[in-house]
Amino acid sequence: MTTTDSGRRRLGTTPRTPAQKRVLVAALELIAEHGVSGTSLQMIADAMGVTKAAVYHQFKTKDEIVVGVTEMELATLEDAVAAAKAESDPARARKVLLTQVVDMAVARRPWVRTLQNDPIIIRLLGEHEPFRDFISELFGVLQGDEDSTTARVSAALFSGAIGGAIINPLLDDIDDATLRAALMQFTTRMMNLPD
Amino acid sequence: MTTTDSGRRRLGTTPRTPAQKRVLVAALELIAEHGVSGTSLQMIADAMGVTKAAVYHQFKTKDEIVVGVTEMELATLEDAVAAAKAESDPARARKVLLTQVVDMAVARRPWVRTLQNDPIIIRLLGEHEPFRDFISELFGVLQGDEDSTTARVSAALFSGAIGGAIINPLLDDIDDATLRAALMQFTTRMMNLPD
DNA sequence: GTCTATATCGAGATAGAC
DNA sequence: GTCTATCTCGATATAGAC
C-alpha cells in the first residue's frame, strides 16, 4: 500500500527508473559530505561516470534531485512511525520509534547532519507538504500527544543530541554498536521511557 | 593581554578597521542564515550598501571573511574557557564553562547551527590551527581531563543537544530564559554536575 | 539513456580611476 | 574607502544527434 493510516501518501513510493536511482544514490553520498550548495550536478555526473546532460535527462532540476534524495532517506523511517502508532501505550510507542531513529541515525551518520542542518534541506522540509506532514507525524509520536513545553524541549533535545553527537569528530573512532548503546541509554534517561 | 595561560594567541584579538568590522557583521548574519556556500560576496556587499570591489578591498578572499567571522564568534567563549581553567575543581570548571556556553548558544541561536554544521566551517575548524587549539582546549575542560569513552560521549551529546535544540523549529516560540533554564537542567543532569 | 555543444547566469577575483 | 568595468571560471540548464 502507498498511503498511511492517516491518509498521507507514504514517502519513498514514487516510481523510479534504475537510472534515476543511480542519480539519487550518487547525489546522496555527495550531498551528505558537501551539503546541497556544495554539490554541483557536475560532481554528481562525475561520480556516476556520465555527463551533466545525462543527469538532467533523469531530473529536470537540481531541486528535484534534492527532494528525491530527502524523500528516499526519510522513507526509511516510515515503517518506524507506522509501528509506533500501532502501539496503544504512548510511552511504548515512543520507545519503539526512538530505537528505530537511533539505529537509522547511527547507520547513516554523515547524512543525518545534512538532513538536520543544511539550509536548503531545512527550507525544503518546511515548504514541501509531504515532508511537513511526515515530520509533524514523527514529532507527534515523540511528544506523546501532549503539548507541554517540557515534552517539546525533550523531543528537540533528543533529536539534537542524536544528530549532533553522531557527527561529532570527537566520536569518529567509536564503533556503531557502542555509540548506539550510549545513545539509547541517554534517550531512555532523558525521556523517561521504560527499559 | 593577547595570549592565554597556555601560550595560545587569544582569538578575536586581530586588529580590525571599522570597515572590516562592518563586513564581518554583515557576513555573520548572512552566513548564519544561508550557510557559507549559500552566501555570496554580492549578498554581503548588498547588505552593506556597497559594491563587491569595496568588500574585496577589506578582505582579499572569501575564506578570510569566513575565518574572521568564525574567529569573532568563538572569541566570545575565550573568557569562559579562561574562567573555567582558573577553577581548581574539574567539576566546577565544567559547570562554569557549560553555563557560559549555554548562554552564548541561546543568545546566538542561528549562528550556532552554522558553526557546528556548515561543511566549510567544519573543515576550517579542523585545518586552521588557532581554531583547532581553541576547540581542543574547550573540549578538554568539558571532558574534565579524563579520556574515558563516557566523558567523550557526554561532551558530544552535550554540544549536539545544545546546537540541535537551539535551532529546532519546534522551539522557535520558546523565549530565551525558558530555553536557557531547560538546557541548564538537561546539561546538569547529563554531565553529573553540582547544582 | 547518453552524448557533444552551447546558452546564460552568477560566482570569486582584479585593475585602475576617484 | 569606494567606485566602474572587466576577467575567468563553474554553475544550472537546454538543443539536438546517436
UniProtKB/TrEMBL annotation, chains A, B:
Q: Which UniProt keywords apply?
A: DNA-binding, Transcription, Transcription regulation
Instruction: Please report the stretch or stretches of sequence annotated as the HTH tetR-type domain.
Output: 17-77
Which Pfam families would you find in this protein's record? TetR_N
Q: Which residues bind DNA?
A: 40-59
PANTHER family found in the cross-reference section: HTH-TYPE TRANSCRIPTIONAL REGULATOR BETI, HTH-TYPE TRANSCRIPTIONAL REGULATOR RUTR
What is the official name of this protein in its record?
A: TetR/AcrR family transcriptional regulator
